[in-house]
Amino acid sequence: MCGIVGVVSPTPVNQLIYDALLLLQHRGQDAAGIVTQQGRKFFMHKAKGMVRDVFRTRNMRALQGNVGLGQVRYPTAGNAYSEEEAQPFYVNAPFGIVLVHNGNLTNARELRTELFLTDHRHTNTESDTEVLLNVFAHELERSTRGVPLRQPEDVFAAVRAVHGRVKGSYAVIALIVGHGLLAFRDPHGIRPLAMGRSQDGTVMLGSESVALEGTAQCFERDIAPGEAVFITPDGQVHARQCAENPQLNPCIFEFVYLARPDSVLDGISVYQARLNLGETLAKRVVSTVPPNEIDVVIPIPESSRPSATQLAHLLGIPYREGFVKNRYVGRTFIMPGQGVRKKSVRQKLNVIASEFKGRNVLLVDDSIVRGTTSREIVQMARDAGARKVYLASAAPPVRYPNVYGIDMPTSSELVAHGRTVEEIRQLIGCDALIYQDVGGMKKAVGALNRSIAGFDASCFDGVYVTGDITAQDIASLNEGRIGVETGEEDYSRLALANAQEVQQEA
Ligand SMILES: O=P(O)(O)OC[C@H]1O[C@H](OP(=O)(O)OP(=O)(O)O)[C@H](O)[C@@H]1O
Ligand SMILES: NC(=O)CC[C@H](N)C(=O)O
Ligand SMILES: [Mg+2]
Question: Which ligand has the shortest distance to the CA of 257?
């Protein structure tokens, strides 16, 4: 998960891109970058940090031009430390291209070798996005060598070739100097991408509808899976389906946690999806804990709030705020490194003790991944004097690694991996633990857009929509990954140990 945005406008775009990135900050808090283009020149500024820290006035002034793109990064490949892996990425040939990417390639390693040996292209980082850009550049070069670019045909042909070579998830925005802005989505549409316009002729592309609406654009439509859209500098929009068998399988975790509740992705309101999840979760709570044994329902801020409200409403139990969030601490789950995450839960959430004292409380979270939040929160509720602490999760147990751009690289770090619900309950230390079930989750979200063929729910059910992913694949995907915590934490070691464990089990 990252946030991406691209704009073509009759007026300068620097502030518009900045504003859109701020609206997408929840999708990536590790690095941010913007490129604009004026004449034959790109202007780029990127660095580690949140949007507000990365861009100072002098940086903004230098970002000139009426066309540009930007990204907020949540690293899921390569080195979380490296400023060089912040996006956008740039190649000088053909034409001069910059690119931003949300997603994760599952065959980046093979492609990197292929790029070097066959395409004679050098990549200088461990980033899968750099690989993706070079594959695109190579394919564009192939169709245009020695002749001027025929747009949009040559651009669409290159995207078609990219679909043929690249595997995994990719929502992409690229800018070809002097020619226009390109956006495309992988053939399963795993990561979201939408388009909007404003009356002055501005066209904007962004990861979530909130980025469009929050910058006064009118949401127009989602980009279809496999589709490419090319916008010329004068604002003309060309669109083409570039995949052979496109099928919409959006990532269900977007609706559970990643996206903002005020966004609508692929026709589904994220807020309504979370209300529905609360509704189905309520039914499961009833079968485990009699509602008259629960005095109060308390959400674990921020993302679980809609599910918790709906659950409390259905069970007829008071909904109270028991934790206050320090708004200046970012989302803990998307922080790289377990040490940072653990420390941040305590910094981020503090109890209102009177809401717990002598009560049986039902805490609701949207999901339990590593269990970092739940373990701390349950203890905090006990310390505040709760009699019984029950915990309910609006998502099912997260048991499998994610390979499509969510930072869950190894199964061993997932609290639910290889454990029964009772074992997880003991680890977390609550009196009862109630999970959503996979079918219930898919039904709750899927009911909001019946034209969706199915969701990518791989971290819950182990089914990977782009084809089987073996333990070895996961190990090689994690090769070279460096976490932020120690600077040395190499995820491939963890992943290999994990792969061996899985093989032994088999
Ligand atoms: O089991 P864990 O590994 O702790 O991960 C799950 C938790 O992380 C997320 O919260 P986060 O603080 O990132 O964001 P939020 O404020 O949007 O809920 C999510 O909402 C859960 O609370
Ligand atoms: N999660 C993402 O979308 C990140 C994009 C890319 N895989 C990176 O790590 O930089
Ligand atoms: Mg949370």
Answer: 1
Assess whether the C-beta atom of 371 lies below 6 angstroms from ligand 1. Answer: yes
Q: What is the ipTM metric for this complex?
A: 0.97
Confidence (pTM): 0.93
- Closest residue to atom 7 of ligand 2, CA basis: 104
Looking at residue 256, what DSSP letter applies? I
Q: Residue 429: exposed, middle, or buried by beta-carbon count in 10 A (0-12, 13-18, 19+)? A: middle
Q: Which of 402, 407, 25, 12 is nearest to 206 (CA)?
A: 25
Residues near ligand 2 (Cβ within 6 A) = 1-2, 73-78, 85, 101-104, 127-129, 405
Q: What is the mean pLDDT of residues 64-72?
A: 98
Domain assignments of the chain as residue spans, ordered by start: 3-248, 265-459, 468-506
pLDDT tens-digit series, residues 104-127 = 999 999 999 999 999 999 999 999
CA neighbor of 299 nearest in space, from 238, 222, 246, 352:
352
CATH number for 3-248 (one of 3.60.20.10, 3.20.20.70, 3.40.50.12780, 2.170.190.11): it is 3.60.20.10
Asked whether 396 and 436 are in contact (CB, 8 A), the reply is yes
- Residue of 128, 407, 484 to test ligand 2 pocket, by largest number of atoms within 8 Å of CB: 128
Binding residue numbers for Mg(2+): 303, 365-366
Cα-based angle 440, 444, 445 (whole degrees, multiple of 5): 125
Give the Å distances, CA to CA, from 292 to 288, 361, 391: 12, 11, 16
Residue 77's nearest CA partner among 407, 323, 322, 369 is: 407
Going by alpha carbons, the residue nearest to atom 1 of ligand 2 is: 1
Helix residue ranges, H only, 332-371: 338-348
- Whether 2 sits among the annotated catalytic residues: the reply is yes
What is the pLDDT confidence band of residue 335, given thresholds at 50, 70 and 90?
confident
Task: Give CA–CA dist 396/252, Å, rounded.
Answer: 11
Chain segment 19-32, per-residue pLDDT in tens = 999 999 999 999 99
The H or E element spanning position 211 is: helix 209-213
Domain 265-459 of CATH type 1.10.10.10 = no
**Ligand showing the shortest atom-to-Cα distance for residue 129:** 2
Distance 13 CA to ligand 3 centre (A): 33
